[in-house]
Amino acid sequence: MNYRAVLSNWKNNVRFQPLSPVSCSNSTADTVLLQIDKENKRQSILGFGGAFTRASALLWNQLSAEKQCEVLRLYFDSDKANYSMCRTPIGGCDFAEYAYTLDDEPNDYRLEHFSVSPDLNTTIPMIKAAQAIRSGRPFRLYACPWSPPAWMKDTQRLEFGGRLLPAFYDVMANYLVRFVREYEAQGIPVWGLTAQNEPNECLRWPTCLYSAEEEATFLDQHLIPALDKAGYDKLAVMIWDNNKDLILERVTGTLEQMSQHADRIYGAAFHWYAGDHFDQLQAIRERYPKLHLLSTEACTALYPEKPEARPGVRYVHEMIGNFNHGACAFIDWNMFLDAEGGPSYVRNQCLSPITIFPETDSYRINEAYDAICHFSRYIRNDAVSIRVIQPSPAEAAAFMNPDGTVVAVVLNPTSEDLFVSLEEEIYMLPAESVCTLESVP
Question: What pTM did the predictor assign?
């Protein structure tokens, strides 16, 4: 099998440069062997994407029509990032100019004041523009709240945790169903939901705490019945939506306490902020083989508190580890942020794959974008993960597309050049670089 290879080496400002094999005489005795087991097929890949946040939409709206189209095509065109699976907050989050929900009228039990009006001139037009680019091709959107309305919580405030009062479980379930219905009325089908973003975090932006028992009760007795009654019985319901370090304990705790609708849980969503913990994913995969594992949020800090690997290297390492341990999707966080890592009313300054400079109607592509593209540009929807014997100290993941083509993504995370051998061809990967190899007829 012959391969076409492209290389990115951010240290030397190299992006998607064609890479040719080297001769055996130019390699070293330390050449590492990349072995792909094409017969060992594992989970299907749903897709890749990012988040339609209010911050991203506010910046996108400030661009000229030409640039708006250009930056969205960087994400959604098949020969660019090929995004097909995205996320959006229900109401406000930390990446907005203020804290809000879609019904901030106190004690509005009937949700008579519920409205998606905050989204009508922000996220909704951006999502519709992405839909148009993806016309005729897969496009899935999943959503989750950062907090219920304050009047439903024991703290009566959006920020710093608090809990949804049991008396409002049905109202909150109807709130989420209403969101799905209102977005559907806007021409935006919602593919999936989680009940709460990061349900064990108490932070200075909108948050809400759910124990495993509380999440199980809310899903089993309130949200899933409300979705089914409203005709959304096929909508994907996911649990957790937080870091990997506690995912096995949480998934087990939630599912074991769902007596009626555990079979309606499509998957477990997870974030990357607590470290690798790939063994947690593997354990879930083995215990619950039908449960889909989705990576649903990742980003790097604009100003890291401590030294860390390059953003591109971190992203590729994360994605390789996730896919090798059962993940079926990768969804990044904000699609667009500004030079200050916002707008964020709590100044939670982060780096997005594309930075927008509205004052000059321009943008900058960052390392995270390239890292994601090394997977998403080549791996098609419904590809399958296939087994790789890890070529240490390099890292690799491999996939088979529906047409039978094989894609391998290889990372050299070290500070030294590495020679990697694949089916009698040898490739030289510079320090801190990534290479995608795609089989050709």
Answer: 0.97
